[in-house]
Amino acid sequence: MTDSIFQEPDWEIGKHGVLDIHASFVNGRTEVEVQKRRIPFQWQGCHYQDHDDEPFVPLITSTGGYVEGDITEFHATMDSNTRLLVTGTSASKFYKCLAGKSSREIVDVTVGPEALFEYHPGIAIPFAHSRTQRYTRINIDRSSRLFAADLMSAGRIHYGEGEIFKFDSFVSIFEIISSGKRLAIDRLIATERRNIDDLIQLWDGFHHMGIAFAYAPDLPKNIEDLVYDNCQGIENTVTGVTRIDNLIVVRILSVNSWQAYESIFNFWSAVRPDIAGKTAKQIRTGSSPTGVRF
């Protein structure tokens, strides 16, 4: 992770976007207030998708992607008993970096006691010769509830003859901290050609990889079996399901992005009634070429 965003260095305008929000429980529902915003992050408010106490927050930037040296930081602090669903509105596209610099995407969220955080970002697409760094850290209390997903592509799969695994460097670290202790960490570090070649072998002909986490202090016994059953039967997709105490992790490899999104949605469908007390809803996203929903 990086140092605090509030040091206010001399950032170049438009190159370092920041959105920092605070969720508090007011008048029987969660309300969201912007603490700090810096372009290209945009704020167009939130809405209550399920007409209940949980706001739906779309992350919007005014750029089409990350050029060399770009950084975005999304920070959220959630008070106790709040509920928040955050999603991307499009893919995170990382363009070529020819001067040796990287592009960076940072997400840092603190979830209070008895609070619920649901996170569905868009897919990360590293273009040819891109240099990408992605850091996601979610701090939860032992009494918090969480569903969080992450998805990356091997590149612009259908561009020209394809840009599959043509990026120069890709680093992605997803970390969940519970009451000061690391609950889970997922690292993908490919900074040299030999690492990328190893990744090609590990993905074994698949072009998209997803990982999703579900946590609640009272997950039902054997719910991981329902998760596994829900994630089966999607063509050109393999999934693995692991449960450690009250944390469930699903790993996904798929040929097409919509298949990975479908697997994530099926996982969410299995656990959301117990985590959030309601059923999963299809969320339309522009993150895939087919405009699929998850």
Notes on the protein architecture:
This protein has 294 residues and is mainly β. It has a domain at 16-217. The protein has three helices and 17 strands. The protein has helices spanning 193-203, 223-231, 257-275; strands spanning 16-26, 29-38, 41-42, 56-61, 71-78, 83-88, 92-94, 103-111, 116-120, 124-126, 131-140, 145-153, 169-178, 181-190, 208-215, 237-244, 247-254. The strands form three sheets. The chain has an eight-stranded mixed β-sheet, with helices on one face. It has a seven-stranded mixed β-sheet with strand order 2-1-5-8-11-13-14. A two-stranded parallel sheet has the order 7-10. A hairpin with a 2-residue loop joins strand 16 (237-244) and strand 17 (247-254). Helix 2 (223-231) packs antiparallel against helix 3. The longest helix has 19 residues, at 257-275. The radius of gyration is 18 Å and the shape is globular. The relative contact order is 0.12.
Unreliable spans are 286-294
**SS field, number of helical segments:** 3
Q: How are the strands ordered across the major sheet?
A: 3-4-6-9-12-15-17-16
Taking the sheet with the most strands, its summary is: 8 strands, mixed
Count of individual beta strands: 17
- Helix/strand/pairing category: mainly beta
Which whole number gives the mean pLDDT? 91
Distance between the termini: 28 Å
Label the overall shape.
globular
Helix content: 10-25%
Secondary-structure element order, N to C = EEEEEEEEEEEEEEHEHEEH
Cα-atom Rg, whole angstroms?
18 Å
> What percent strand?
35-45%
Structural descriptors:
single chain, 294 residues, mainly beta, eight-stranded mixed sheet, 3 helices
